[in-house]
Amino acid sequence: MNERDQNTPAVDSDLQQTSTQAVNAGRRKIATGGVAGAGVLLSVTSRSAFGTSVWGTCTGSEIASGNLSNAGTPRPCGCSPGYWKSSNQNGSALWDNVSIFSPYLKSAKFNTVFGCAFYASGNVTLQQAVDQTTSALGSWCPSNKVNSMRNVAFHAVAALLNAQFYGDRFPFSDMQTATGVITVFRNAFTSGTSALTTQFSDRFKSFYSSYPNLWCNGSQESSIQV
Predict the structure, then answer these.
(1) Measured torsion, CA atoms of residues 164, 166, 172, 177, in degrees rounded to the nearest 10
(2) Residue 217's pLDDT is what?
(3) Distance set, CA 132 to CA 38, 90, 137, 185, 200 (Å)
């Protein structure tokens, strides 16, 4: 069977509006926090500039922890997909922070967020996707690709959350915002399973294998699940 999607869904007309609302909400939080008085409104993707006590924390102290490369620059930050599973108490609790992750909360529908009919049911949530508790994909997916596409969704949700949490500290220039992750996913989806595998499973597995002691939410993630 041709792996190219033969049933390309219509673009979710609410997607851009939802993303814009999320950015605007983030900017309002920044303004009310007193940053606006400095005359510069930092973008939501630059959260790490606010320090280590708020959004996008990599370590308690970059220098003291030794979280620097040989060149003296901060190492990239991100949590592995397994960190966000409901079975991981730390990741699950972090994801419950509405101020950071709205509108990409556990109960958000995967198909709605990513703007495509990836799952056969539109009721599959982001949490179910990252937990890999469902395998019912749309008719676009060949039966021998179901497991690999479930892994793609696993990585896609993790990328979405990492982009929302870390912004420009997440080391993928095209996926440093939630909108960027969604765009990459949708473009790959229209090209078929090979593109999805390349952009998500292969790309992220390579990244996580390069950083076995990845910093995640203030400490080194000791059990990376990819």
Answers:
(1) 30
(2) 81
(3) 45, 18, 12, 18, 15
Of 218, 199, 177, 214, the C-alpha closest to 82 is 214
Helix axes 178-191, 146-166, angle to 10 degrees: 160
144-151 own/partner pairs: CB under 8 Å, 24+ apart: 145/3, 145/193, 148/193, 148/197, 148/201, 149/118, 149/193, 149/196, 151/201
**Phi, psi (rounded to 5 degrees) for 2:** -65, 130
- Whether the CB-CB separation of 79 and 158 falls below 8 Å is answered with yes
Q: What are residue 9's phi and psi, to 5 degrees?
A: -75, 160
Sequence-ordered list of residues with C-beta below 8 angstroms from that of 98, at least 6 positions apart, any chain: 105
Q: How far is CA 79 from the centre of its chain?
A: 9
- What's the residue count for the chain? 226
Q: How far apart are CA 27 and CA 42, in angstroms?
A: 8
Task: Report pLDDT for 134.
Answer: 80
What pLDDT, on a 0 to 100 scale, did the predictor assign at position 21? 46
**Cα–Cα distance measured from residue 185 to residue 198, given in angstroms and rounded to the nearest whole number:** 11
Please write the tens of the pLDDT for every residue from 128-185: 999 998 879 999 999 999 999 999 999 999 999 999 998 888 888 899 999 999 999 9
pTM for the predicted model, two decimal places:
0.71
